[in-house]
Amino acid sequence: MAVICPDSLVKYFESLPDPRHTRNRKHRLVDVIVIAVCGVMVGCEGPTAISLWAKNKREFLQTFLELPCGLPSRDCLRRVLSLLKPEAFQQCFQEWIAACLAANADGDVATSVRHVAIDGKTLRRSHDRGRALGPLHIVSAWASGQGLALGQLATAEKSNEITAIPALLEQIDVAGAVVTIDAMGCQTEIAQKIVAAKGDYVLAVKDNQPKLHAAIRAFFDEHAHDELAQVAHRRCQTHDESHGRKDLRYYFLAKLPAGFPLAAKWSGLKAIGMAVRITAHSDGRESSDARYYIASRYFSGQRFADAVRGHWSIENSLHWVLDVVFNEDQSRARQRRLADNLSWLRRLAVGLLKRHPGKESIKCKMKMTGWNNDFLTEVLTQQGT
Hints:
Layout lengths: L6 H5 L17 H13 L5 H10 L1 H4 L12 H10 L2 H20 L9 E9 L12 E8 L4 E8 L5 H11 L6 E4 L6 H9 L3 E6 L4 H13 L10 E10 L2 E11 L15 E11 L4 E10 L5 H11 L1 H12 L11 H20 L6 H10 L1 H9 L4
Parallel strand pairs: 1-4, 4-5
Antiparallel strand pairs: 1-2, 2-3, 5-9, 6-7, 7-8, 8-9
Helix pairs in contact: 2-3, 2-5, 2-12, 3-5, 5-12, 6-12, 7-8, 11-12, 13-14
């Protein structure tokens, strides 16, 4: 297995344009960035904590950073993270992560991204009432199979996801992948973007697309009496038990019916789907719900089920961890670019910590990166993944 040392992280940021005026460049940009990466990885919530951590890890940092003028101050860290363009910042990280994965894959094609879940999350305490700014909303792309953030885009409001998702799709590579998005992203422009990028989609359909939702629901209701025996379809069934309840899930994907209304409106539309969950509760109650989907490919029943279930990994494996482990909802970073760049560093940290093969929890791994320099190196270089 090839090994990437921490100094390889440095080279991926050497070409990043420095947003500071030349007279304010006391510290190398790449040194400031790498310290910020490491600081967030160990659980620092902002520039002040990152600066304090760096002072206590000076000897470790000097092993792979030049630091010609010593360690950057809290104000220097804040200024750089407030000026860097998030798009360029993320691109450097994506190239670095791709190199780490390639070096540790030994040619294994399984490292290619097969499922990309896109969803939004609000940083609830990032509002700035003094400037009439509401909380920042971040739309993220998550490679569920690899457990890595591929990119993100900040918006002023949740409703702006509709315009943010197409822009995010232009920043990431979805060729050959299945892209899943909740009902907010069920838009014709988004479907067209995914198909044009040579990807496939499974989009949730709800009442924000009333005609489409009604047509899909009517189709499955019409054929419910014989469980779709008369139409071309594929299916999958799963059974789960947890927290005192039993869940039966049925997934049905039907080939697009001839004459299906609105078919021409959706680029690449090949199938319509339904996911039914029947829950038996410990107190004897039973509940059920059905959700509907459109898909650009007539997948196998198992592949359709994997896409639907896999979408929730962005909630369970990313958003939940960001709030519980990294305390993101309590972040008071009000400057928009600072908040955006810090949120990206947290998403990067979640992915790298999750991919480390250790059996410890994400929270324990995060603490261990602060205690143990060798462990931090392993996480940063993705050794053993």
